[in-house]
Amino acid sequence: MLIDLLSNRSDYVNDVSNMIYKEFVVNTGSKMTFEEVCIYFSNTNSERFPITLIAIEENECTGTISIFENDLKERELYKPWLASLYTKPEHRGKGVGQKLITETLKVIKKLGYKELYLRTENASDYYRDRGWSFVETITDDKGQKIDVFKFDLNNKKIIN
């Protein structure tokens, strides 16, 4: 499995956009169009946010993850954020997500950050089991409860 920056692999922009649109736009009731999602992912970067990484196996994009400056407007003081981790269902349970997270932590460290945050509505145990520290539970502007986690790069080893 190869993990690479989407900015190096523009031929996978449509695949990533499709995954993210179905999982994080349609499922959340966002008004974003598929075309807007494609434009967004066509403009990801390698050394400034937003940054998107992809997992490729046998020329197929099997998963994706992004890094945003902020992913929760109620907590603008926390920066940067792991966002939009997604693995295709047929590739789950094979370590794709963990490899994407590991590479994301390496990118963050290379950029000089000491910590990375994330938000989750339903995967707290997944992150807790992988060394992330619970920060707080908040209720967003839509009334949804969100757990916020942090990975401290100073005090924790990046798990490969």
UniProtKB/TrEMBL annotation:
<dbReference type="Pfam" id="PF00583">
    <property type="entry name" value="Acetyltransf_1"/>
</dbReference>
<feature type="domain" description="N-acetyltransferase">
    <location>
        <begin position="1"/>
        <end position="154"/>
    </location>
</feature>
<dbReference type="InterPro" id="IPR016181">
    <property type="entry name" value="Acyl_CoA_acyltransferase"/>
</dbReference>
<dbReference type="InterPro" id="IPR000182">
    <property type="entry name" value="GNAT_dom"/>
</dbReference>
<dbReference type="InterPro" id="IPR039840">
    <property type="entry name" value="NAA80"/>
</dbReference>
<protein>
    <submittedName>
        <fullName>N-acetyltransferase YhbS</fullName>
    </submittedName>
</protein>
